[in-house]
Design a protein that fits this description.
With 100 residues, this protein is of the alpha+beta class. The chain is built from three helices and five strands.
Length: 100
């Protein structure tokens, strides 16, 4: 299954991202199927290939939650933003305590 996601590039503490199409299970350093644009969160600058993004979404590629929200904000797609679900960390004290 193909997914549209962000691939981090740039120096330490200066992140910038490429918007790529890749296999869902591939590693982040694996070569992507296609490069669709760039996103710089520090300057809030984004440049996307709108036609290619719409093409990949049309053939069945899914956008990750963060990517979907960025595309909605930039006006590439018209949809509602999705809620980002973070995994909850289990406190170490709760792991060690036996259930009574």
């Amino acid at each position: 299954m193909l997914v549209i996601r962000l691939q981090r590039v740039g120096k330490k503490h200066q992140p910038s991202y490429r918007l790529v199409v890749a296999e869902r299970r591939s590693k982040m350093i694996a070569p992507p199927t296609e490069d669709l644009g760039t996103y710089n969160p520090s300057g809030k600058k984004a440049s996307f290939k709108k036609e290619r993004i719409l093409y990949w979404l049309g053939v069945g590629a899914k956008a990750s939650v963060t990517t979907h929200n960025i595309l909605v904000k930039e006006g590439v797609i018209s949809d509602k933003k999705r809620a980002v679900r973070m995994k909850k960390a289990v406190p170490k004290a709760a792991e060690a305590a036996p259930a009574a």
